[in-house]
Design brief:
By secondary structure, the protein is α/β, with parallel strands linked by helices. It has 2 domains: about 80 residues, 3-Layer(aba) Sandwich (Rossmann fold); about 130 residues, 3-Layer(aba) Sandwich (Rossmann fold), CATH 3.40.50. The chain is built from 10 helices and 11 strands. The strands form 3 sheets. Strands 1-11-8-7-5-6 form a 6-stranded parallel sheet. The relative contact order is 0.17. The model has no long low-confidence stretch (mean pLDDT about 95). The structure holds NADPH dihydro-nicotinamide-adenine-dinucleotide phosphate. The site of NADPH dihydro-nicotinamide-adenine-dinucleotide phosphate has 25 residues, from helix 10.
Length: about 290
């Protein structure tokens, strides 16, 4: 029987730990963490993610500021906003919700963020520190995955971990972190992508599969071996007229079938998604400690 990796519960446990630590911090006269989120345009998924992040801040007693900018915001205007946030001593960390409208260069924007406030861990300086195993802000989704593996004591040491998808925000950093020489890492990592040949055979050899490609039901039961650990990062909106909002959320895994062969599996929703929020909050508290030294 598979153990369900309950990201919703673990995320709430972490948030409660953060709430207590924040309360004690504030009682000692220290600064209350303050996260800012910049949202450009009106992409519905981005709006949902940002709203969840702001709500989580409230739950743990952080201050939060949501900066909503219209779709027509120019790159220059966004850069000015970032400069203000970089220089504002009240803001400990901030995120710019991706994706940005097509006319804005994401790389340029990420590089403009002060690395000490880069709680998404996307700045090249922080990515470099992650690669070298130095203290840094780890990107929220990969860090959330490490945290859930730790809390459920999933053995990763010497295991063959296959990662599907090589995006800069999930697959690529995940491949580095699972290969680091400390727990939860020490796995032998295979990073796969759309050009990979024999993906099915590679997956059949995997002890752990972490999939982040954005294709519903892509990973099927015939692709995995008995006892596999499945981390499903995908969030796909599948049209569904029986739902009030007109769609349902599905991961990248054929959950109902793959669960029968798994030892551990994350559901969607309620798996990796809530963990991403928890690790953003952890990074924000760490940024507050770092910046108030
Ligand atoms: P991207 O769209 O940036 O990248 C997708 C990756 O999947 C690429 O590396 C691509 O390969 C690879 N890919 C696409 N098709 C195949 C295939 N048939 N076989 C193997 N690899 C394939 O993805 P993201 O990482 O941004 O997002 C992936 C999913 O994760 C989405 O559903 C997203 O919503 C979700 N997500 C969830 C988060 C959470 O908190 N739970 C956070 C972030 C993302 P190539 O490089 O060759 O093009």
């Amino acid at each position: 029987m598979a153990v369900i990796l309950d990201g919703k519960k673990v995320s709430l446990d972490i948030q409660e730990e953060l709430r207590i630590e924040t309360k004690e911090r504030v009682e000692r006269g220290r600064k209350k963490p303050h996260l800012a989120a910049v949202l450009v345009g009106d992409d519905p998924a981005s709006q949902t993610y940002v709203a969840a992040k702001v709500k989580a801040c409230e739950r743990v007693g952080f201050d939060s500021t949501l900066i909503k900018l219209p779709e027509i915001t120019t790159e220059k205007e966004l850069m000015e906003e970032i400069k203000l946030l970089n220089e504002n001593p009240k803001i400990d960390g901030f995120i710019v919700q991706l994706p940005l409208p097509k006319h804005i260069n994401e790389e340029k924007v990420i590089q403009a963020i002060n690395p000490k406030k880069d709680v998404d861990g996307f700045h090249p300086q922080n990515v470099g520190r992650m690669v070298l195993g130095l203290p840094t802000f780890l990107p929220a989704t990969p860090n959330g995955i490490l945290e859930i593996l730790k809390r459920y004591k999933v053995n990763t040491i010497g295991k063959h971990c296959v990662i599907i998808g090589r995006s800069h925000i999930v697959g690529l950093p995940m491949s580095i972190l699972m290969g680091q020489n400390y727990y939860p890492g020490n796995s032998t990592v295979t990073l796969t992508h759309s050009r990979t040949k024999n993906l099915k055979e590679i997956c059949q050899e995997a002890d752990i599969i972490i999939i982040a490609i954005g294709k519903p039901n892509f990973l099927t039961a015939d692709m995995v071996k008995e006892g596999v650990v499945i981390i499903d990062v995908g969030i796909n909106r599948v049209p569904d007229e029986t739902k009030k909002r007109g769609y349902r959320l599905e991961g990248d895994v054929d959950y109902n079938e793959v669960i029968k062969k798994s030892s551990f599996i994350t559901p969607v929703p309620g798996g990796v998604g809530p963990m991403t929020i928890a690790s953003l909050l952890i990074n924000t508290l760490n940024a507050t400690k770092l910046n108030s030294k």
